[in-house]
């Protein structure tokens, strides 16, 4: 068994990335670090959801975008984070991404991620990030988090209809497309989101609007257009 520098149990790490070369690099990097042990890996969300509960890692390092650039895989790693955290609240999820994306950061925070780092991070810093989240501390950049929280507090201007005041900018964008009659799949393709993410967002939008069907939401959009 791998031992930590202090002689305790190693930090157990699981890897999710759809690129084999990236997984191999992460496995070699983290597996060679004192006190860390890579106990499993997966290339898809389905594999991760099946394997993580079986190996019981302390930290899951999750790529944001799965599927080789397919829009259906956008933010899928964050959906994995959300599901794993629901099953295993003690698990620390570290989101790893190539893109500095406030929308993904927002989704990661809401999914319960303990950290969010870019793939451009130095190897030594990534090792430290894994140790940090394993210890129960956050690895969310304060500046980026502040930007997301500012977006959550929108709207502040008077040009936003009161019906939409509780919606985030992304939710208002999705609602506009619902008003155009687009399906979840079409909206996902237009906004480069996973179809499941769109479905979840629309459910949240309907709840905030106090309606139960998307046709009712579309009527609200049409009424707003008529007033403008």
Account of the protein in words:
The structure is a single chain. 51% of the residues lie in helices and 12% in strands. By secondary structure, it is an alpha/beta fold. A five-stranded parallel beta sheet has the order 2-1-3-4-5, with helices on both faces. The radius of gyration is 20 Å and the shape is elongated. The termini are far apart. The N terminus is likely disordered.
Primary descriptors:
228 residues; alpha/beta; elongated; five-stranded parallel sheet; 10 helices; 51% helix
List the helices and strands and how they pair.
Layout: E1 11-16, H1 20-31, E2 36-42, H2 45-55, E3 59-63, H3 76-87, E4 92-97, H4 102-111, E5 115-118, H5 123-134, H6 142-152, H7 169-179, H8 184-191, H9 195-209, H10 214-227
Helix pairs in contact: 2-3, 3-4, 4-6, 7-9, 7-10, 8-9
**Over all CA atoms, what is the radius of gyration?**
20 Å
Major β-sheet, in short? 5 strands, parallel
Percent helix range = 40-55%
Enumerate the strands of the largest sheet in spatial order, edge to edge or round the barrel: 2-1-3-4-5
Structural class: alpha/beta
Low-confidence stretches: 1-6, 69-73
* Strand count: 5
Residue share in β-strands: 5-15%
Distance between the termini: 67 Å
Mean pLDDT: 83
Order of helices and strands: EHEHEHEHEHHHHHH
Approximate shape: elongated
What is the number of helical segments per DSSP (H or I, 4+ residues)?
Answer: 10
